[in-house]
Amino acid sequence: MRYTKQPDILSGIWVWWVQNQKLRRFVALLLWTPLVVAGGFQGCAFLVSKAFEDMCGNDIANVYPSPDGALKAVVFSRNCGATTGYSTQISVLPVSEQLPNKSGNIFTAKAHYKEVTYSKKGTIPIKGRWLSNTELQIAYPSQAEVFQSETRVNVQAGSFDSRTVTLQYKTFKAERPKN
Fold it and tell me: What is the DSSP letter of 144?
C-alpha cells in the first residue's frame, strides 16, 4: 500500500488565498485605508501646528532682577497678530534664561488705550519690586483688566536650587492719555 499525504486545511486556504486576487485587494484596502487616513490627519495636524507656532511675539519692556541676582521678573508685551490686541505679561525666570516665546507665567492684563497711557513697548504701566529673594510685589493700574495673577510660582534657579516666589499685587490709578 502506498502512502499518500492528505492535504491539510492550511495549505488549502493558502491556495485559495493566492488564487483569489479580489479578496486580497479588499483585505489590503480594509487594513491600509484607516492607517493612511490616520497618518494623513497626523501629518496635517503637525503641519498646522508648525505653521502657526511663532505667530505671537514678545517685546521686553522692563527687567527686575531679584536682590541676590538669581531670578528676574520680566515685563513684556505679547502680540499674536492682527486679530488680537497687545497684552502686558510678566514672567519670573532664572537670570540666565532668555524669555521664551510663550505667555507670561505669573501675570497677564490689558487696558483700553483711552484709559491708560501705554509705554513705547506696548505695555501698561507696571511696577515691580522685590521685597526679598522670594517675594515680588507687582503694582498695576486699577483700570486694567487682569486675566492671570498667580500668587505663587516655582522657578528652577539653578541645578539644585528650586524656589517658590510669592507674589503680591497692588493697584494704582494710572494717568489717562492726553488727547
Answer: -
Question: Which pTM value belongs to this model?
Answer: 0.68
Same domain, 68 and 135: yes
Give ∠ CA 68-105-67 in degrees, rounded to 5: 10
Q: Which domain, by its residues, includes 143?
A: 57-172
DSSP 51-70: HTTT--EEEEEEEEE-TTSS
Of 55, 57, 73, the C-alpha closest to 121 is 57
Q: pLDDT of 106-140, one tens digit each? A: 999 988 877 888 888 788 899 999 999 999 999 99
DSSP bridge partners of 60: 76
Q: What distances in angstroms separate CA 103 from CA 68, 156, 173, one per listed residue? A: 25, 18, 26
